[in-house]
Specification:
Elements lengths: L2 E5 L3 E8 L11 E8 L1 H11 L3 E5 L1 E3 L2 H13 L2 E2 L2 E3 L6 E6 L5 E7 L14 H9 L2 E5 L4 H13 L3 E5 L18 E5 H8 L9 H7 L4 E6 L2 E7 L2 E5 L13 H14 L4 H16 L11 H7 L7 E2 L2
Parallel strand pairs: 1-4, 1-10, 2-8, 4-6, 5-7, 10-11, 11-12, 12-13
Antiparallel strand pairs: 2-3, 8-9, 13-14, 14-15, 15-16
Length: about 325
């Protein structure tokens, strides 16, 4: 069984949706939803449900939210090994959405991730986990210096490294580590924040990102074709048409998990991209950030709706 070590965000996501018209400075009816989340943690749960051995290491507070994250990890089959700070709060992301689902405002309480410093990577449990892993996955919730250190350590051990962008504000934390990253998963806004400009056509993303030092990655574009590249190969892939979309939260994280599942099983990159699109399609039909019914069988069934990738180079 392939082993994956995930280092990154595992926290609580809270989403409140307004039930009527938005009115600033007023109390508005709506409803509240809460679940465990975080880019790394979402990908970790998806990978575990797809049959890979996944270990997650992340800072955690000694509170009820931390226990909720632990329970979510157990339910998904993730080997959860947090750094627990008993006197701190577990990180959280709180969003207020308008009636149509658009983000109105959000508050990210992520200060605890600053304590995942490079020296934490020297703890024996982390060193052993990295040595045993076939691939190391991180997200940009980690401090820049920690990302740089773990990328070098993983590469020194001969491990492949994958990364999740998280947001336009955080993706620049990867800039000094791009040469050590095999796959970086991002949307167009994050890709633009990383390289400082947008190409004239989407098909030029691989060239622009290679020039920045990256050897492989995927740029998602909502309902438009995703652009992926690995080494010299570049592909374009339209997402499958889905009749019912419950929530797009976590779609990018599931796409990353699906692509990595394909890569770890030795598939050509363009076929791994199809597995990523299939995983994302399953996720957006769920009201949760990770689909609890995700499995290898369901993933392969969904492939029937995913078109063949177009080879760009």
């Amino acid at each position: 069984m392939h082993k994956i070590l995930v280092l990154g965000g595992a926290h609580i996501d809270r989403r409140g949706r307004i039930g009527g018209e938005t009115a600033h400075g007023a109390s508005i009816p709506g409803h509240w939803f809460e679940e465990a989340g975080g880019g790394g943690f979402n990908a970790a749960r998806n990978l575990a449900r797809l049959g890979l051995a996944v270990r997650m290491i992340s800072p955690r507070g000694g509170d009820a939210d931390g226990q909720s994250v632990a329970e979510a990890a157990l339910a998904a089959g993730v080997d959860d090994r947090p750094f627990t700070f008993l006197d701190r709060k577990t990180p959280s992301y709180t969003a207020i959405l308008e009636r149509d689902g658009n983000l109105l405002i959000a508050l990210a309480d992520m200060e605890l991730y600053r304590l995942f410093s490079p020296r934490r990577l020297s703890v024996r449990a982390v060193r052993d986990a990295m040595a045993e892993a076939d691939l190391v996955l991180c997200d940009a919730n980690l401090p820049q210096e920690t990302i740089a250190t773990l990328s070098v350590k993983a590469r020194h051990l001969g491990k492949r490294v994958a990364a999740i962008a998280i947001s336009p504000a955080k993706v620049p934390r990867y800039r000094e580590s791009l040469a050590e990253i095999d796959f970086l998963f991002m949307n167009e806004a994050e890709a633009q924040a990383l390289v400082g400009k947008r190409p004239e056509t989407a098909e030029e993303w691989p060239s622009l990102l290679r020039d920045a030092g990256l050897s492989g990655g995927v740029v998602t574009r909502g309902r438009e074709a995703a652009i992926g590249f690995s080494g010299e190969r570049s592909v374009s892939l339209l997402p499958p048409a889905i009749d019912t979309v419950a929530d797009v939260t976590g779609a990018g994280d599931s796409l990353a998990a699906g692509v990595l599942y394909g890569v770890m099983n030795g598939l050509p990159f363009e076929e791994a991209m199809r597995f990523g699109a299939a995983a994302a399609a399953i996720t957006v039909q769920s009201p949760l950030a990770t689909a609890e019914n995700l499995s290898e069988d369901l993933l392969r069934d969904m492939l029937a709706l995913v078109p063949a990738a177009k080879i760009l180079s």
